[in-house]
Design a protein that fits this description.
The structure holds 2 protein chains of 2 kinds. Chain A has helices at residues 40-48, 72-77, 95-109, 117-130, 136-139, 148-162, 178-191, 231-239, 241-246; strands spanning 2-11, 14-24, 29-33, 53-62, 65-66, 80-83, 90-94, 141-142, 166-170, 197-201, 215-220, 223-228. Chain A is built from 9 helices and 12 strands. The longest helix of chain A has 15 residues, at 95-109. Chain B has one domain. In chain B, helix 2 packs antiparallel against helix 3 (51-65), helix 3 (51-65) packs antiparallel against helix 9 (187-195) and helix 7 (162-168) crosses helix 8 (170-176). The chains are: A alpha/beta, B alpha/beta. At the A-B interface, helix 2, strand 7 and helix 3 of A face helix 1, helix 10 and helix 11 of B. Bound molecules: adenosine-5'-diphosphate and magnesium ion. Adenosine-5'-diphosphate binds at residues 11-12, 14, 16, 34, 36-42 of chain A.
């Protein structure tokens, strides 16, 4: 599904990703862990096509296509979803409006009929119920005045509704209490299927108790320095990054 | 009615160029080019006007000759040659129309293309998309159709072309025409008094809540023609009316002048809600062509507890120069001004309001949202004046500007004059840029860059969009998206 080869990228003239190699097959869940400033968010932005994150070398293939050639909205419509580490506020735009506009943009891209207000509300209410989110959030402006936890829940709700093929979660667990963490994990697990994959960026092994990964990678200073199965996450928690990176 | 959640949810997803730019080939009756006393007499004769009105026009014309074009606005344009404009152009018609069925089918076609229902039957038959709105259609210099007149007459509401009101309700017209905006007011209002051709007249009698929205659609079709319409609305004691106006024009390389005057008179406990969606042709991306929109709009809140709300969505025109104002004379009267002004490419807008507080406990609210993109310049200019007798008067102003790109400009010019010791005036202003982060967030969810922009800007304008009547809100939201085309990347 996703094949990253020797990927290099810079931000503001500074090289951040220094040759990343990573292959994610359909149905697999990969966790990426690593110290602050390692380049984890940068990787997620490069994959989703954010302006200013300049690829200077290597390649990324997604479903047999050159991902780096695609516009960010085309990547999104092709099934790549990024749950942001810091979700963005959009004043004056109700969450429901935002979700409906996004869903219909993606449906249109796939040549499907757009949903009308009634159909949409029915669908979104199913999802809020599944994820234990208050409907009241739909009326509020996107992320405006949301608590940290609400913002993350909102990301998970969007993901549940858009049903992406490749989920990128950037520290979705940070700042969540244990109940909220379970809800977030539930969101990913519900979507889990042989056709879908995920790249989960996290600091804590805690999340991985609920979303069990197939592979765990350690990213340090722009490179993957170690890969393994889920036991690597436990090892990391015990020994810390410094020792692992040095090894 | 405020916009429902559902309407708010239906957000701009449209991406099309100025779609009203077509020209229609309709036979017209046109006065010779240029302006003189003879032209003023010609217009007056065409309309079969009484002597007093011709006299008034001539006085205005002579006064105008002595005046100088104003230059204080922050707009820039080549000198207008007032002798190179046609002041009268009317679609040819045989006799007086008896019913809508007699309107030239080609004109009906034009309005159909614009999405404006002139056929009452359609509305009554529940044709999809036909809103329950009475329409006066002004084509170049004259009104060509007014719908639902009988229904309105039953309630005593008068809604007709002003040229007809001059004949059928001379006492009302004589009493109020020019009573809010006299011909001496300013250069363009003087010109308008001399050569106005048509526009709408509304009278809501005592105690009547107008049973439907009233609206006027202005269409400039003929080339090199100025449009000088005049609207007069009188809301008698305890009455209410919501009135909407919309405007479009063909794409032409030349600039065309539109100099309208709108007067509102509001009596005790009466309320007028006046909404505008201004979408005159803005010119092309290099600033060629487009309408010069130089308009004087003013409401006189004469009665106690009277109220006026101006809501405007200004997206069109090469230049907009317009300050819908409120004279708050009656005690406890209320004035509101909600504005969205979008300028793109080389458009210029200098717009705002004047709140003149004269009575006790009068209050006013100003919410202005200015959006500039491309190389456009947008200025908010607003005056709040508290007179000596305006005890406990209050004003609250919020002025937000949003910049898209770094070649455009936004300016805020508030004037505050306070002679009342008990008055309270609050002014807030912000300027922000659309953030790359917000755009990326929307794009990451599947919206194109232009759709993302439209969504974010609609959010920025929400407080004002919510003030529009339903019938206009959805259209206005789409317009926001269309107006910003080509502003990204
Ligand atoms: N816009 C930017 N301009 C300059 N440097 C940046 C920018 N964004 C991130 N960086 C730098 O890139 C490095 C990696 O950041 P990031 O990808 O956010 O790390 P992580 O998510 O692993 O904590 C950090 O040193 C950070 O300071
Ligand atoms: Mg990060």
């Amino acid at each position: 599904m996703l094949e990253i080869k020797d990927l290099r990228a810079e931000v503001g003239g500074k090289e951040i990703l220094k040759g990343i190699n990573l292959t994610i097959n359909s149905g697999e869940i990969h966790a990426v862990m690593g110290p602050n400033g390692a380049g984890k968010s940068t990787l997620s932005y490069v994959l989703s096509g954010r302006h200013g994150y300049e690829v200077t070398g290597g390649s990324v293939m997604y479903d047999g296509q050159n991902l780096l050639d695609m516009d960010p909205d085309v990547r999104a419509c092709s099934g790549i979803f990024l749950a942001f580490q810091y979700p963005v506020e959009i004043p004056g735009v109700a969450s429901a409006t935002f979700l409906k506009t996004a869903l219909n943009a993606q449906r249109k891209f796939r040549g499907e009929e757009e949903l009308d207000a009634m159909q949409f509300l029915k669908l979104v209410r199913e999802k809020t119920k599944e994820l234990d989110i208050k409907d009241d959030m739909l009326k509020r402006a996107v992320n405006v005045g949301f608590s940290g936890g609400e913002k993350k829940r909102n990301e998970v709700l969007q993901m549940a509704l858009l049903e992406p093929k490749l989920m990128l979660l950037d520290e979705t667990d940070s700042g969540l209490d244990i109940d909220a963490l379970k809800v977030a994990a539930e969101g990913v697990n519900r979507l889990r299927s042989p056709e879908r994959s995920a790249l989960i960026i996290t600091h804590y092994q805690r999340l991985l108790d609920y979303i069990v990964p197939d592979f765990v990678h350690v990213l340090a200073d722009g490179k993957i320095v170690k890969s393994g199965d889920k036991s690597l996450a436990l090892e990391l928690e015990e020994k810390g990054y410094a020792e692992i990176s040095a090894a | 009615m405020a916009v429902s959640q559902e309407t708010v949810e239906q957000v701009a997803s449209v991406s099309e160029k100025y779609k009203y730019g077509f020209v229609s080939d309709i036979e017209a009756d046109t006065a010779p080019i240029g302006l003189s006393e003879d032209i003023v007499r010609f217009i007056s004769a065409k309309k079969d006007e009484p002597e007093w009105l011709l006299e008034w026009r001539l006085k205005a014309y002579r006064y105008w000759l002595e005046m100088e074009e104003p230059s204080w606005a922050k707009v820039d344009y080549p000198e207008i040659d007032f002798q190179d404009i046609y002041y009268y152009s009317a679609p040819k018609q045989k006799d007086k129309l008896k019913s809508l069925d007699e309107v030239d089918p080609e004109i009906l076609e034009v309005y159909k293309k614009l999405g404006i229902p002139l056929k009452e039957q359609e509305v009554l038959a529940g044709v999809e998309g036909a809103p329950n709105v009475a329409v006066d259609a002004v084509f170049d210099s004259v009104s060509v159709a007014t719908t639902f007149r009988e229904r309105l007459e039953k309630e005593g509401v008068i809604f007709c072309p002003i040229s007809e009101a001059v004949k059928n309700h001379p006492e009302l017209v004589k009493k109020y025409l020019g009573s809010v905006v006299p011909y001496t007011d300013n250069f363009y209002s003087a010109l308008n008094c001399a050569v106005f051709t048509d526009g709408s007249f509304v009278y809501i009698p005592k105690g009547v809540r107008c049973p439907m929205e009233l609206s006027t659609y202005f269409r400039i079709n003929a080339a090199q023609t100025g449009q000088f319409e005049r609207t007069l609305i009188i809301a008698d004691d305890e009455s209410y009316v919501s009135y909407l106006e919309g405007c479009t024009a063909p794409m032409r390389d030349e600039n065309q002048l539109h100099a309208a005057v709108v007067e509102l008179v509001i009596m005790d406990n009466a309320e007028v809600k006046y909404s505008t969606v201004q979408n005159w042709y803005p010119g092309d991306e290099n600033g060629k062509g487009g309408i010069y929109n130089f308009v004087t709009k003013r409401a006189a809140c004469r009665g106690v507890n009277s109220k006026v709300s101006w809501t405007q969505v200004e997206t069109g025109s090469a230049i907009t120069w317009k300050y819908p104002s409120c004279i708050l004379q009656g005690d406890n009267s209320v004035g509101e001004f909600y504005s969205i002004a979008i300028t793109n490419n080389l458009q210029q807008a200098d717009t705002g309001t004047k709140m003149i507080h004269l009575g006790k406990n009068t209050s006013s609210t100003i919410i202005s949202k200015g959006i500039s993109a491309g190389r456009a310049q947008s200025t908010y200019r607003g005056l709040v004046r508290m007179g000596r007798k305006a005890e406990n008067a209050r004003n609250h102003t919020v002025c937000d500007s949003l910049l898209i790109g770094d070649k455009c400009g936004a300016h805020t010019v508030p004037y505050i004059e306070n002679q009342s010791r008990t008055a309270k005036i609050e002014h807030e202003a912000t300027t922000s840029k659309i953030s790359e982060e917000q755009l990326f967030y929307c794009q990451q969810r599947g919206l194109s860059e232009e759709e993302s922009m439209a969504l974010i800007v609609n959010g920025f304008c929400k407080e004002v969009l919510q003030k529009l009547p339903m019938e206009f809100a959805v259209e206005a939201q789409k317009l926001v998206g269309i107006s910003l085309e080509g502003s990204v990347g």
